[in-house]
Design a protein that fits this description.
Elements lengths: L2 E7 L14 E5 H4 L3 H14 L3 E5 L2 H11 L8 H11 L7 H11 L3 E3 L11 H29 L4 E5 L5 H10 L7 E5 L5 H13 L4 E5 L4 H13 L3 E6 L1 H7 L2 E3 L6 E3 L24 H5 L3 H25 L4 H11 L3 H16 L3
Parallel strand pairs: 1-2, 1-8, 2-3, 3-4, 4-5, 5-6, 6-7, 7-8
Antiparallel strand pairs: 9-10
Helix pairs in contact: 5-6, 8-9, 8-14, 9-12, 9-14, 10-12, 13-14
Bound molecules: zinc ion.
Length: about 350
């Protein structure tokens, strides 16, 4: 039975925080290390916040965005020289394993996620294979380099290896080349993968001996359910970071306390009068939907941010508390999640995983 945590991401200053104590935070190295003034700002922010858990993500996602902007094609061969080229063509970003380690030494995160070159959103298997091949050289080199630098400078900081693969075959392929790297856990982007694929990846991690996993950037109920089950039954640690609580609040969306789906409460939304608030958060106590809808923008986004953040944490916590036995977990998911076919998919995928566990 491991720990299961929701980690707040996407905040950079006190003004963007939820109105409650923030224990777990994820910040990106690309943001922290963007400039001298950014470093100063984040240092003050962390000093004031004093989080219990601070995860430093590498900023690989920002790297992907920058690279896609300059539209350079990168060959998978000769990755060392392309590595340099890549950093040069990306004018606004200067990420490297050395930079990541420097920032880790300076900021002392509890966990650092290694530098990766994310694979983009492609749906056909042949495009995915090409994209995977374009990136694997970088991802192997960077994993090895961070490993050796970490051993030299900051062995006390936990190292989670990012996994950039569309399929299990690609994961094992990558894993083979990073065998000697000493890691504490892995991190996984979900990229809208199916529930079944997520379960298969988590099971594969378990099979190769991984006991700590971070799932990157999601607030989906189905992923939460899978993560909570694995935290309870397979791993020592599973954390998930997300920004949806805040982004949804800014767009006027109230996250449903049962399945985290959005209920839009913008001024022009037509409310269903039969739909009553049944949330137990401290903010919903004194409100109904028309009252929330009529709030002015700043008040509404603060209200929604507080509610959304609270229920995102509670949702993962409740799933974890109910995840001990698969059959009763299934009953719980069916009761909370309006999409019964997804509830079935979660159940059958986990049932299959339990059958292949050993
Ligand atoms: Zn609420």
């Amino acid at each position: 039975m491991g720990e299961c945590l929701f980690v707040c991401a996407g905040v950079s200053s006190n003004s963007g925080l939820p109105t409650q104590k923030l224990k777990n935070i994820l910040l990106s190295a690309a943001n922290i290390g963007a400039s001298k003034s950014a470093k100063k700002k984040y240092k003050t922010f962390l000093d004031e916040l004093k989080p219990k858990l601070f995860i430093m993500d590498s900023g690989g996602y920002q790297l992907l965005l920058e690279v896609e902007k300059v539209k350079k094609s990168i060959s998978s061969t000769n990755s060392k020289s392309n590595n340099n080229l890549l950093i040069r063509v990306v004018k606004n970003l200067n990420l490297s394993p050395k930079k990541i380690i420097e920032l880790a030494v300076e900021f002392h995160p509890n966990i650092m996620i290694g530098l990766d070159f994310p694979v983009g959103k492609y749906s056909s298997p042949s495009e995915q294979k090409n994209e995977f091949c374009r990136k694997i050289g970088f991802n192997i080199d960077w994993a090895l380099e961070i490993d050796s630098l970490r051993k030299k400078y900051c062995l006390n900081i936990q190292y989670f290896l990012p996994i950039q693969a569309y399929t299990l075959e690609q994961f094992y392929w990558f894993w083979h080349y990073v065998k000697g790297v000493e890691i504490d856990g892995v991190s996984l982007p979900t990229r809208n993968m199916s529930v079944e694929t997520l379960v298969q990846f988590l099971l594969a991690f378990h099979h190769v001996g991984v006991r700590k996993v971070h799932i990157l950037g999601t607030s989906r109920f189905d992923y939460f359910a899978v993560g909570a089950y694995f935290a309870k039954n397979y791993f020592n640690w599973l954390s998930i970071d997300g920004t949806s609580w805040s982004a949804n609040a800014r767009y006027g969306s109230y996250m449903n306390p049962h399945d985290l789906k959005n209920e839009y409460l913008g001024k022009e939304a037509v409310l269903n009068e039969s739909y009553q608030i049944d949330c137990r958060c401290p903010w919903c106590r004194y409100y109904d939907f028309p009252a929330i809808q009529s709030l002015v923008y700043t008040e509404k986004s603060r209200f929604l941010g507080s509610h959304n953040f609270w229920i995102t944490n509670r949702c993962l916590e409740n799933l974890y508390n109910n995840a001990g036995d698969l059959h009763s977990f299934y009953r719980y998911i069916r009761q909370e999640f309006r999409d019964q076919s997804v509830a079935d998919e979660i159940y059958f995928s986990l049932l299959k995983a339990d059958g292949k566990r050993h």
